[in-house]
Amino acid sequence: MRHDKAKDHTIRKQNRISGRTVPLDLPPDEFRSAGHRLIDDIARLLSGIRVRPVTTAKSPRQIRALLTSPGIPKIGTSARRLLQDTTRMLLADSLFNGHPKFWGYVTSSPAPIGILGDLLAAGINQNVGAFALSPIATEIEAQTVRWIAELIGFRTDCGGILVSGGNTANFVCFLAARKAKATWDIRKQGLTGTGKQLRVYCSDETHTWIQKATDMYGLGTDAIAYVPTDQYQRIDVRALENQLKNDRKQGYLPFLLVGNAGTVGTGAIDPLRELAVIARKNNLWYHIDGAYGGFAAVLPDAHDDMKAMSEADSVAVDPHKWLYAPLEAGCALVRDPKVLQETFSYHPAYYRFDDNKEEAPINFHEFGPQNSRGFRALKVWLALKQVGRSGYERMIADDIALAHQLYEEIQKYPDLQALTCGLSITTFRYAAPNMRDGSSRSEEYLNKLNTELLARLQAGGKAYPSNALVQGKFALRVCIVNFRTTLDDVLALPPMVIALGKKIEKEWRLSGQRMSSPRNSGRSIKVPERR
Q1: What is the three-class DSSP state of 49?
Q2: What one-character-per-residue DSSP string does 299-354 give?
Q3: Which of 22, 351, 497, 507 keeps 20 to 30 A from 4, CA to CA?
Q4: Under a CB-based contact definition with an 8 Å cutoff, are residues 350 and 139 in contact?
């Protein structure tokens, strides 16, 4: 009896797999129909994005309530209905960084060709970890790396790889620097191979990736020597040289110097040429973090320090910032390609990717931390081919011009104080002249006022700046990496800020807020010169 049941079970299983039906697959007609509907919905989003709010600013609890199923569904839903319902939900409750008044963080409007490129890349689903697994995709990525290097003036025979974003691009370069400058075999011995502590040098305006890198890769955040900045948020070169001299006396092993090609807070550009000289003199790996600003080097009239990219050992840039690629797309470039392979390459027995006798292929698993890798390069490559160098020169120059126009416009309003303007970032605050006496009480009041103002501005959905801290001042920060932004968009912001600032002050006065507006002391705060 038991034997008969087992036999019946085997027959049923064989019958099922011999005429297998797969619930995840879609017949071609159904796939085409659902896809056409989705493309139409995305096209309507792009064409009407200007009249949408940037965000609805609902709370996490409100958003979570929209996902009504607490557990995985027992029975599935038709793909067509599922895509329609999900599209409707996403269009109702997303923050749209493609909106012309999204200036909050360094995430660009997604190029339409990049959106379609991601669809195509997902359709062919290449694993760009090895040439054998992705022949044309590998060569497209290699060409994309060369084109990115050419755009910023880096050497085109460098090593490079597309990664998820700025953090990872900087991590790749950090690990290459650690391997190249350690005086022992750090891949085998780890950080215990010497009694000396590795030391990193960067300005106090450097992005938090440096903290993550020293933390994740064993050095600890105490290994960071933060060098103070000048009044324009650039690294103080003399302070750097003194720090290096003192650290060597204390037994540290300096190995990495980071220069910023556009800080995230204010768009400040470090003295990159001077840093290159210091790095060579001190046998340091010289890395430039250009995740935000690096692509501005493409401009014919770019700042001279932006033309110093060629002097770096490595550079990190983000195509999903100023090349307007959809997320995710970062890029790590290393002057000597062999260093990347020496940092990441392993050859287990189950990898047989180097059997080509005529020419050694590119296997990107040897250039970075991932083995399985998506085809990120396609959306970047397509956009570069669509608009060319001249197209990017124009769009990046327009973004910078709009930020500078906003800086000049702000100075026409007595209730606003312009603070900085670097690359395509302008910072300012709501601060009537009688509030700018420089006292700690006034500054505390202004910081709280502008913090509240920003929160309401973002929640209102009409415009979405973010914040920066400029010499202790809480500032509204407008970062324009957005090909949809127009002059009318930026000119609409100052009156919006003033109206909201006055409203908050009135509410605070009526509610008896302790932080009442300070009296005018007759003194004013000097505004940094425009860069």
Answers
A1: helix
A2: STT--GGGGGGGG-SEEEE-HHHHT-PPS--EEEEESSHHHHHHHH----TT----
A3: 22
A4: no
Residue 139 DSSP code: H
pLDDT for position 528? 33
**DSSP annotation string for 507-520:** HHHHTT-SSPPPPP
Q: How is residue 295 annotated by DSSP?
A: G
- Cα–Cα distance measured from residue 530 to residue 146, given in angstroms and rounded to the nearest whole number: 34
Number of H helices, E strands in the chain: 17, 11
Question: Which uninterrupted H or E stretch holds 452?
Answer: helix 440-460
C-beta of residue 232 within 8 angstroms of C-beta of residue 528: yes
- Count CA within 13 A, CB hemisphere, residue 321: 24
Judge whether 475 and 428 are in contact, CB under 8 Å: yes
Q: How far apart (Å, rounded) are the C-alpha atoms in residues 451 and 501?
A: 10
User: For residues 345 and 119, is the Cβ–Cβ distance under 8 A?
Assistant: no
Q: What is the sign of the dihedral through the CA atoms of 397, 485, 58 and 445?
A: positive
Cα first-last separation, the chain: 89
The single residue listed with the structure tokens 């038709």 is 78
Nearest to 144 by CA among 158, 130, 133, 124: 158
The enclosing H or E element of 8 equals helix 2-18
pTM of the model: 0.91
Q: Within a 10 A sphere around the Cβ of 38, how many other Cβ atoms?
A: 16
Spell out where 164-197 has E strands: none
* pLDDT-wise least confident of 234-238, 291-295, 331-335, 515-519: 515-519
**Strand ordering across the sheet containing 198-203:** 159-163, 330-334, 314-317, 285-290, 253-260, 198-203, 224-227
Q: Which of 149, 161, 156 is nearest to 384 (CA)?
A: 149
CA–CA dist 394, 389 (Å, integer) = 9
Q: Quote the Cα angle for 252-253-254, to 5°.
A: 105
Residue with tokens 């006022």: 449
Structure confidence at residue 367 (pLDDT): 97
* Residue 23 CB-density burial (10 A; 0-12 exposed, 13-18 middle, 19+ buried): exposed
The Cα–Cα gap between 361 and 384 comes to: 24
Dihedral sign from CA coordinates of 214, 220, 223, 229? positive
Joined tokens for residue 12 = 């049923």
Say whether 168 sits in a helix, a strand or coil: helix
d(CA 266, CA 153): 23
Which segments of 73-173 are extended strands (E)?
159-163
For tokens 């290449």, the residue is: 126
Q: What's CA 38's distance to the chain center, in Å?
A: 27
Length of the chain: 531
Averaged pLDDT score across all residues of the chain: 92
CA 404 to CA 16: how far, in whole Å? 67
Q: Are 271 and 235 in contact (CB under 8 A)?
A: yes
Q: Which domains does the chain have, with CATH numbers?
A: 126-183+196-341+358-374 (3.40.640.10)
Residue pointed to by tokens 């080509």: 356
